[in-house]
Amino acid sequence: MNENRISYILVFIYVFSYVICDGELGSGSERFKIEGKIFVPFVNDLEWISSTKIIIDGGRYLGFLKSDGAFSVSNLPSGSYSIEVINPSYVFEPARIDITSKGKFRARKMNNIQLNAVSTINYPLKLKARSRINYFQEREKWSITDMIFSPMVLMMVLPLIMVMVLPKLINAQDPETQREMQSQMNFLTPKNNIPEFSEFLTNLLSGGPKKPSQSRTKPSKRR
Description:
The chain has 223 residues and is an alpha+beta fold. It has 5 helices and 10 strands, in the order αββββββββββαααα.
């Protein structure tokens, strides 16, 4: 019997101390609430509300919208929180809210590229949709410029232009330049005494150049 009383007393002391400690911790750390409203200015109906969520700190806290687009996420300690609006059809700009221990709120746009750039916004939050999400890429339309500037057409047209324009440019030059270019062309053309490559290859494979056959004249016998 005495052992049961001692166990009851120990359980009572443990529960009493836990309640006191929990009350002290709860009174020392205040909780706050983040409020705001979501707008989609280029849509008249409100069907987007049911599919919209408020994500705080990447999913650590979650909120939903009311029928008028307002939201409220409570039971938050002081700190800095990222606010993201998730909707499958519209894009919203994220925001960040800093809550001090005294209950002061500071809202600003969240810029992940330029972290030092601070752009404050009003609180309670009023977040508008920037644009509609496009899941499909529009097919490119046919245009005459795409065909003209395509690589295949350029490869065919440019040599033709060079062939047609260069002779006119050469004829328009002075006679000295023409004689110089003509001499260069004559220098590049193969001479008659230089064998061609095909002839050289034939001679190489056949074992050498064929010697001209000399007809041997037999001496005529005198009768």
